[in-house]
Design a protein that fits this description.
The chain folds into two domains: 161 residues, 3-Layer(aba) Sandwich (Rossmann fold), CATH 3.40.50; 215 residues, Dehydroquinate synthase-like, alpha domain, CATH 1.20.1090.10. It contains 15 helices and ten strands. β9 and β10 form a beta hairpin. The chain is globular and about 70 Å long.
Length: 402
Amino acid sequence: MNDFIFCSPTQFVFGHGANDKIGEMLAQREGFKRALLVYGQGSVVRTGTLDRVKKSLDAAGIEYVEFGGVRPNPEVNDVRKGIEAVRENDIDFILPVGGGSTIDCAKAIGFGALHNGDVWDFFSGKAAVERCMPIVAVLTIPAAGSEASSSCVISNDELGLKKGTNGDAFRPVMAFMDPEVTFTLPAYQTAAGVTDMIAHICERFFSGVGDVPVTDNMACDVIRALMDAAPQVLENPEDYDARAAIMWASTLAHNDVLGLGRSTNPASRAGGWESHALEHELSAFDPKITHGAALAVIMPAWMRYVWREDPSRFLLFGMNVFGIEPIDDTDEAVEDAVTVIIDELQGFFASMGMPTKLGDFGLKPENIDAFLKTLEANKGSVFGGFKKLTMDDARAIYESAF
C-alpha cells in the first residue's frame, strides 16, 4: 500500500426527508446567511425539489439569490455570470441543487469568486485552487460524485475544451442526499449515472499500481452493489433501498476512498484517468453527449487496448466482480478470460440501455482528428497511468469504438 493523504470534510445528511432539513441545519452554522442557489434547466423545478429547498430556507430565515439554467457539461461563461452574481449580492455560500454539472458549476463559482483573475486560469494551469467559498450540495442526480469529490470539470465552448481541476478546498462542506428525489429520474439518466460511478472506480482500480487488498476489495464490492441495484431501479423506479444504494455509491466512487494506497503521489488521486480523458473530448465536441453514456463505450475500448500491460489486474477484477477466472495459466486461457471479463462489463452497460459504439451518438470516424487535437491540448502528447498512451494509441482506441 502506497502512502496517502486523505481529506473528507463533507458532512452527509442522508435519507428520508433530508432536503427538508436544509434550512434548519444551515441556520446552525455561523456565516451561512445568504446563498447563491444554483440549479439546472428545469428538472428540479418540475419535480418540486427546488420549492422544497426554498421552503426550508425560508423557514430558517436564510436568504438566497437564484441562479438557474446551468446546462449539462457546464460552460465557463455560466460560471463567470455566477461569479458576478456572488460579488453583486453579498453571497456567503453556494448552494447547488442538482447533479454533477450543477455542483461543478457551483464549485467553480465558489473558487472563481475569490480569484482576482479569470476563473479559466484554474483550468488552463495558470492558477491552483487554494481557497473556495463554502459549497453545500443538494444531490438530485447520483452519478458524478461531485457532492464530496475534489474534482471540478468545466467546458469552454470558445476553445472547444473540457477541462478539470482538483483541490480539497472545494469539497462541499455539506451534502444533502434524499434517495426519494431520484425516483423520477429517467432510466437513461439512471443508467448513465451508474456507468459513470463504475468508471470512477475502475479509473482508480486500473491505476498501474499493484494490489492493495483492502481498497481493492472495497472497490469491487461497490461495483457489485451497483450491478445488483441498477436492474432493480430500472424495473421499479421507486425502490427506495436500491435508489439509496446507488446514491451512496455515487459518493464512495469518487470521494477517493476507493483509491487510497493506489497513488504514486500521496497528495494526488490514484489513476491516470485515461477513459475520462478520452471521453471528455466527445462531450466537449458535442455537449449533448451524456458523459456516463459515452464512458460505456470508451472504457471497454480502452480496456481491450491496454489489458496486456497487466493481465493480472484484469483477472483480479474479473474474479472479484464477475467470478470469472481462466481455466489454466496459459496465455490463451488468460486472453480468453480477460476478453470475457471486458465483454461482461460492457454487456452490463448495454443491459441498462447504454450505447455500445460511438456511432450511436451521431459521431463519425472523421471526427477523430478533432478529438485528438483537443485531447493533446488537454493531456499532452503522452498520458496515462496504467499504460502510457500516445496520440496514435488514442486514435486506435477511438477507431475501435466505432
